[in-house]
Structure formats: C-alpha cells, structure tokens
Specification:
Layout lengths: L2 H14 L9 E3 L9 E10 L16 H4 L1 H15 L3 E8 H13 L3 E7 L8 H4 L3 E8 L3 E10 H8 L4 H7 L5 E9 L4 E2 L5 E3 L2 E8 L7 H30 L9 E7 L7 H8 L1 E3 L11 H7 L7 E3 L4 E3 L10 E2 L4 E2 L2 E6 L3 E7 L4 H6 L17 E7 L3 H5 L3 E3 L1
Parallel strand pairs: 2-3, 10-11
Antiparallel strand pairs: 1-18, 2-8, 2-19, 3-5, 4-5, 6-7, 7-10, 9-20, 11-17, 12-13, 14-17, 15-16, 18-19
Helix pairs in contact: 8-9
Organism: Henosepilachna vigintioctopunctata
Catalytic activity: Exonucleolytic cleavage of poly(A) to 5'-AMP
Protein name: poly(A)-specific ribonuclease
Length: 402
C-alpha cells in the first residue's frame, strides 16, 4: 500500500468516528410586525440525494452502511421533523419513497403533499417508474389549503419552442428535469394580528425545481430557468382565473404571492441566479455559450429592452454566500447551488438556518458528504418569512369570515 493510501485511510477512519456536529445556528434578520395583519411561515428546501444516485463510485469516502437508503432516510426524516417547516420542498425523491415513506410519515405530523417524478417516468413500466426521482412539496394543513398543482416539464417546453433549432433539440430537449408548483391558500390559523372576525385567504404559489446538473451545460440550466419563469407567469394567470371562478372575487395574477426554490445546480455568479435575482439577462450572456437561442427565447420571454430577456417577478434570495458558504458538499465540489427566492415586495425574511459548523468539518476531516452524521450531500435551507396580504387581494375582498 502506498504512503498516501495510509493517509486517506486515516482521514476516512477519523471522519467516520467523528462526533455529531453542533446544531446549526438560527440567524435572526428582522423582528415580526405587531401592528398589522401578517402570516409568518417557514420554508425548507432540501435535496435528499435519492438512493439511485448514492453510489459507492460517487461517494467512496462514505461507509456503505451510512450510504444506504435505509440508514439515511431515518436521519433525513428526523431532520425534517426537527425543523418542522410549514412548507417543505424536496428534490431527488424517488416515487416509491414519496408514496410509501415520506407522505405517510409526514401525514402523521399534519402535512399533506404533492409529487411528480421526472418526465422519463411516463415511458417506463411500473417496476422501473417507482425508482425515478422527482420533486415533492409538503405543506401543513393547519396553515394552508391546496387549490391546484401544476407540473412544468422542460423537455416538453423545449420541444414546443424549438422551431427546428438544433441546440434546443439536441441540448435542451433531452434533459427531463421538472418544476412542480402548488397553489396554496392561507387558513385562519396562518395569520396574526388579524382584525376581529376576519382573516385573509391569501393565495400563494410555491414552486420547487431541479435544474440540470452538468457544468458543461450552463446554457441548458439558464434556458430551463427562463422557461420556468414563463410557465410560472402562465400558472399565475390561470390560477387567478380559477380563484375568481371559485369565489367570485377579482383576483389578479399579481396578487398571488410567489416562493420559488430548488436545486438550480448553479453558482451565485451564474446566469441562472442573475436572471432570477435581477429579472433580466443579456442575450449575449456567456452562459448561452455563443449558441443561437435568441429566436426561440424571443417566443418564450419578453424583451423590454434591446438585447435583454426579462421576467416580471420581483424576487430576492433568502441566502447570501456570506451566510452560507456552500449548500452542496462533496469531495469533488463544494458550493452554493440550492436557493429559496421570495416575493420581496410582500415578504420579509425574519430569520434563517445558518451553515453547518466549518470547524466541525475541518477538525473531523470530513472531506465530503454524505457522512454518518450528515445524510445527504446537500444541506437543507430553512427561512422564516413574514407575508402581508397583497393590496389586490384585500381590495378584491379575499376575506374569510369566522
């Protein structure tokens, strides 16, 4: 055995025998309002690393017993229950695990949920389909009611907008990533400081997405995100029509609030994050890789200014890289690729879950996750948001009476 093999074996054994990490800190950001009606709720975003991807080849530094799904799923569920978020967004959930593990377990804690596997599942037999991973959204039924769910399939959108363009057909369309959205409405229990006898039934659209992973396909990541923004606009418009038909109000798409989160597989300086944060992206952005997507994207998105694609959402990221140095931590890659975006005009972050202790990682020579004490290669994000009723919703009388 070579000398450096002894070194890596020592690191491995030291890491495996490490004590549990200290609790992640809660970072307060603002005080809740006391003089107006508000809804305070927590949102979690967590890529749980499905069993199919948790291979020994990929995670050789993790002992087999700690990499097994039977071991990891218990730790993941315990972690989810510990934080008790009002809305939980999960990625890389296998269909079988959603219906036979996560959903029945979380229903015991007062949640209900929706799920969709990646698009490839529809072409598989049942015995194979149940192992396809996808996205899930859970919500506490005491605070939210599900009105409608919507699935966004990027390969279908790419096909519909390709116009024969080679790059759309050969690069974007074969990737079967998805987004999943839940149109929720608040219940009476969700509100604080509500006027006596009334409470706002505020509609909120929660979307989670899992964007393509390969760093060589930054153009695909950006286009998937741009198509997602267009679909969210359509979903909001359709949701407003649905709510109006249900209760006779005059809900507008703008009065439905938005939370968007997921594993975007994109760093903070990427075109994906720039587009979501600023609402615009140059048609010449380097992440398009000098490929001619312009004609297709002009069909999908508005171009309010010359040489720019835009979206109309006013979003902000709950986390910044000075708070969370990485959300994905493996031997080969450590960086921020998971995000929670919120409607910054009507929502305020009150606090968020801080990072895993860097001292613990260093002192115990943890070179990557999963680990016997860390159950995925991603760390869950958790933010507490304060939401006020939208002006449109209040003016249109979206009020419930006791």
């Amino acid at each position: 055995m070579k000398a450096n093999s002894f070194y890596y074996m020592d690191v491995f054994l030291f890491s495996v025998n490490a004590p549990s990490p200290p609790p992640r800190p809660w970072i307060p950001l603002a005080r809740p309002s006391t003089n107006r009606q508000t809804c305070i709720f927590t949102v979690m975003c967590y890529n749980v690393l499905c069993d199919k991807y948790a291979t020994r080849q990929m995670y050789s530094y993790c002992p087999s017993w700690a990499l097994s799904w039977e071991y990891r799923k218990k730790g993941i569920l315990e972690e989810i229950r510990h934080y008790g978020a009002d809305i939980i967004n999960l990625q890389e959930v296998e269909m079988d695990q959603f219906y036979n593990f996560f959903l029945p377990e979380l229903k015991q804690d007062g949640y209900d949920g929706i799920y969709s596997p990646k698009s490839r599942a529809k072409h598989m037999v049942e015995s194979e389909r149940k192992y396809v991973d996808g996205c899930a959204i859970f919500y506490k039924t005491s605070k939210f009611v599900l009105i409608k769910e919507s699935l966004v399939e990027f390969n279908q959108l790419a096909m519909a907008n390709a116009d024969g363009l080679e790059h759309m057909l050969n690069r974007v369309m074969p990737k079967d990533n998805i987004g999943l959205a839940a149109l929720l409405q608040t219940t009476e229990a969700a509100w604080e400081n509500a006027p006596e006898g009334t409470f706002a039934q505020q509609p909120i659209l929660v979307c989670t997405a899992h964007i393509h992973w390969d760093p060589e396909f930054c153009d695909v990541k950006l286009i998937q995100t741009m198509m997602l923004s267009k679909e969210l606009k359509n979903i909001l418009e359709n949701s407003a029509q649905l709510l109006n038909s249900m209760d006779g109000t005059h809900t507008t798409a703008e009065s439905i609030q938005l939370v968007l989160c997921g594993d975007f597989n994109s760093l903070p300086d990427s075109g994906v994050v720039e587009f979501l944060n600023t609402g615009r992206i140059s048609q010449d952005h380097k992440d398009f890789k000098d490929l001619s997507y312009k004609k297709c994207l002009e069909k999908v998105l508005s171009c309010d200014k010359p040489n720019e694609f835009t979206h109309s959402f006013k979003l902000a990221s709950a986390y910044s890289d000075d708070i969370m140095p990485f959300t994905n931590y493996t031997f080969e890659f450590k960086g921020i690729i998971d995000y929670i975006f919120y409607a910054k005009q009507t929502m305020t972050p009150l606090g968020l879950l801080g990072p895993l202790s860097s001292e613990w990682l260093t002192q115990n020579k943890v070179i990557g996750c999963p680990h016997p004490h860390v159950f995925s290669d991603h760390f869950p994000l958790l933010v507490e948001l304060e939401m006020i009723p939208t002006v449109g919703a209040a003016m249109n009388g979206i009020i419930g009476h006791r």
